[in-house]
């Protein structure tokens, strides 16, 4: 017989799934008028004891479940996760509820499988209510109040429970950021690095503070990264994602905002429903344009625009997962919203020392270069942001490659000149400071 390969987490839950499978089998037999055998009842009693002991152990359910769940709440969560943990149980559920569109159990099926007496039915529906630990903890999703609508585990719950790699599909309205980033590559003042580490604590220790210690759950967490363009806001978000080993998704509002009334809210709901509880970071750029001080309502469209912003605020606050908003114009943010951030990090323009470190790290390490191309000289020469230094370093490298020679200060000066000219303003050689003598004479000024 071919052996089954289980992760450690899946092996720990074997008794849970075996018990649910046996309960479903006994139900199917009873519908045919056949009583459970004594052997099946003895086996069920043994499995029940194993399950009760397992639920009291550390690990296992503690990966997702808050402390203090009742036996019935554990049963509901186990039945909801069972089709994803053991596909055979999903198929079995479908045979027990013919015509059901999904393999997930309905409240009506749970009442039968768990042999809940009519007078105990309110306890089952209490476990499914919006104020139950299962719903407040983002563990299950209920399609509606209809007893024949399925309930399922929230996205990512089963993967976390069993220690499986999270598998995510396309996220509506967002694009995956594929920026390689390491913590040691951050070039920021030490106090800003400390603030980024504190934001990590909000993410990694939420289960302890909220679940075990009873702290208030403010959603998210949500951070604001503020600073001029090119100062490393997106790179810092990528560093955090890399540290967590989670993907970073940049939300493309152009794909979400619609001119048709009500469509923007629907698009936002699809985004947050897909991301809720998943191990990922969402990043919204240009937060100042989204959450600026709301102006006077002059026409119907203004009122709906304010409603869309309010809806987005509500979804961000109720979202279970980290959200990072970036802005170049922090002063334009509505103060009423700014108070809702857990962490606010200002990204300053780099000083000469930071620029030196950036040049050192961003010039291709194996590129041949003249001795005069010293990062300390480049860092002190021209006041560039980190993004501009990255662009100039690569541009200079391509100039050197095209010339077939080691990198020299002429290549770097021309690359910086091109970078400074991107904003369309008129330039003079004085803008290059100490680099001016190295700008090729044929460059028009």
From TrEMBL:
Q: Name one GO molecular function term.
A: ATP binding
Give a yes or no for keyword rRNA processing in this entry: no
Note the superkingdom of the native organism.
Answer: Bacteria
The protein's UniProt keywords, in alphabetical order, are:
ATP-binding, Nucleotide-binding
User: Could you tell me which residue ranges the AAA+ ATPase domain spans?
Assistant: 219-351
Instruction: State a single Pfam family of this protein.
Output: AAA
Signal peptide span: none
Q: Any keyword Lipid metabolism?
A: no
The entry's family comment says:
Belongs to the AAA ATPase family.
Name of the protein described by the UniProt record: ATPase family associated with various cellular activities (AAA)
- Native organism is Syntrophus gentianae
């Amino acid at each position: 017989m071919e052996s089954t390969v289980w992760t450690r987490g899946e092996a720990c839950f074997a008794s849970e799934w075996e018990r649910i499978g046996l309960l479903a089998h006994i139900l199917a037999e009873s519908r045919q008028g056949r009583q459970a055998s004594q052997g099946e009842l003895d086996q069920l009693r043994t499995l029940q004891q194993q399950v009760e002991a397992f639920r009291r152990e550390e690990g296992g359910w503690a990966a997702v479940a808050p402390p203090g769940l009742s036996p019935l709440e554990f049963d509901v969560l186990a039945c909801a996760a069972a089709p994803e943990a053991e596909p055979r149980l999903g198929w079995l559920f479908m045979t027990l509820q013919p015509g059901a569109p999904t393999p997930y159990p309905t409240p009506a099926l749970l009442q039968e499988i768990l042999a809940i007496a009519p007078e105990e039915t309110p306890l089952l529906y209490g476990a499914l209510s919006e104020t139950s630990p299962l719903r407040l903890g983002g563990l299950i999703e209920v399609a509606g109040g209809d007893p024949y609508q399925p309930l399922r585990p929230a996205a990512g719950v089963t993967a976390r429970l069993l220690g499986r790699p999270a598998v995510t599909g396309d996220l509506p309205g967002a694009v995956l950021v594929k920026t390689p980033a390491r913590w040691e590559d951050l070039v920021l003042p030490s106090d800003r690095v400390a603030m980024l580490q504190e934001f990590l604590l909000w993410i990694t220790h939420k289960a302890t503070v909220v679940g075990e210690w009873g702290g208030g759950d403010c959603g998210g967490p949500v951070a604001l990264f503020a600073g001029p363009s090119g100062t490393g806001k997106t790179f810092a978000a990528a560093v955090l994602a890399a540290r967590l080993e989670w993907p970073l998704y940049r939300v493309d509002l152009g794909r979400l905002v619609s001119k048709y009334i009500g469509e923007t809210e629907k698009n936002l709901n699809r985004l947050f429903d897909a991301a809720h509880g998943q191990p990922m970071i969402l990043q919204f750029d240009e937060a100042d344009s989204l959450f600026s001080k709301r102006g006077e309502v002059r026409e119907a469209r203004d009122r709906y625009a304010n409603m869309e912003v309010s809806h987005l605020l509500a979804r961000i606050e109720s979202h279970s997962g980290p959200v990072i908003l970036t802005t170049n114009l922090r002063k334009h943010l509505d103060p009423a919203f700014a108070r809702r951030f857990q962490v606010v990090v200002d990204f300053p323009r780099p000083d000469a020392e930071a620029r030196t470190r950036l040049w050192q790290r961003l010039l291709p390490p194996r590129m041949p270069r003249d001795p005069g191309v010293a990062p300390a000289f480049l860092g002190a020469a021209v006041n560039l942001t980190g993004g501009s230094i990255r662009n100039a370093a690569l541009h200079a490298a391509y100039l050197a490659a095209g010339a077939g020679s080691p990198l020299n200060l002429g290549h770097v000066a021309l690359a910086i000149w091109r970078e400074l000219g991107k904003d369309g303003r008129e330039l003079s050689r004085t803008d290059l400071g100490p680099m001016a003598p190295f700008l090729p004479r044929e460059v028009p000024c």
